[in-house]
Amino acid sequence: MTADVIRFEQVAKHYPGRGGQGAVAALDGIDLAVPEGAILGVIGRSGAGKSTLIRLVNGLERPSAGRVVVDGVEISALAEAGLRRARRSIGMIFQHFNLLARRTAFENVALPLEIAGVAKAEIRRRVEPLLDLVGLADKRDRYPAELSGGQKQRVGIARALATEPRVLLSDEATSALDPETTEQILHLLRRVNAALKVTVLLITHEMAVIKAVADRVAVIDGGRIVEQGATFDIFARPIHGTTRSFLSRLTAGAIPALLAGRLQAAPLPGGEALLRIVFTGAHATDPVISRLARRLGIDVNIVQAQVDEIAGRPFGVILATVPGDPAVLAAVAAEIAALQLHVEVLGHVR
Ligand SMILES: Nc1ncnc2c1ncn2[C@@H]1O[C@H](COP(=O)(O)OP(=O)(O)OP(=O)(O)O)[C@@H](O)[C@H]1O
């Protein structure tokens, strides 16, 4: 059994109210476990409590109730000296990189080692392979102002890894980057996770980030985890409205606006049902649809079909309409279940 490297047990965090207002419950009843070597993504809207959650892991905040355990140590119970020691096994990367402008790439990566009192030769021995790992060996003597956003974040990643941490925290690390650079940085995070076996906890407000890197996801809303599980399962079978709303912003599976506006919950006489069929790559789109049409003798209209990849597994979504008659829907459900695919009725249209 793999151990959990990060564990939240019934954690709550309340901030005192500001300007005469009541206390703010930033987090409540949080139970969360990050298994060793996993990449867990926490997604939530602005103000949901993501930053608070990540700051509890490195002890920048203390819980009002519950325990936060990192690598077997109860972070939430440590005094300052213990915290300083524990933080060496927790690296962190930031949205705005937080590099020191007057230090070169090499010197930025070396900083945590200098603070830890590591000898110069040993620092060189550790920093150079890290610069290699993040693809910046040729930029070692450049200053942050001479680097692109993606290159700065690579320095940030190398610096976070310098003390050979067991845990890497990522606070919206790609939010300031363009989509292509984001993809490269997320790819690098996966590579680092695999090569160094470092456990990653990242917070984001973008489902695309979750899709690209996270093995597991926790959806946070109003300070509570409303849904969590393997990324693939959450994408295949989202339950909570917040999760669905995040997913609807991705192209795959988003209901076209024209149709969304007409969608009703109850079947309409003579109408059609809009289905979301999730498949996992074993079946191509066409055979699934033509099999349904052929075996049931019905019209199946594809509204949208897309094949994607989630946590390294092929993942396809088809939105299609079929006759909305309950008997037809039951037959469709049986056919799709026989193919071991997942189907959901999103609503009805006429
Ligand atoms: N130091 C503080 N004092 C009082 N309230 C705070 C403090 N820090 C955060 N809060 C409140 O706690 C709640 C959660 O904030 P938090 O920063 O954790 O959310 P977030 O999900 O990270 O949001 P964002 O994505 O906008 O950074 C918010 O209502 C916020 O206003």
From TrEMBL:
Signal peptide location: none
Pfam family, one: NIL
PROSITE patterns registered for this protein in UniProt: ABC_TRANSPORTER_1 (PS00211), ABC_TRANSPORTER_2 (PS50893)
Claim: Coiled coil is one of the keywords in the record: no
Highest taxon above the source species: Bacteria
Keywords: Amino-acid transport, ATP-binding, Cell membrane, Membrane, Nucleotide-binding, Translocase, Transport
GO terms assigned for molecular function: ATP binding; ATP hydrolysis activity
Keyword set includes NADP: no
Cellular component GO terms, alphabetical: plasma membrane
GO biological process terms, semicolon-separated: amino acid transport
Function: Part of the ABC transporter FtsEX involved in cellular division. Important for assembly or stability of the septal ring.
PANTHER family the record matches: AMINO ACID IMPORT ATP-BINDING PROTEIN, METHIONINE IMPORT ATP-BINDING PROTEIN METN
Entry's family note: Belongs to the ABC transporter superfamily.
Protein name: Cell division ATP-binding protein FtsE
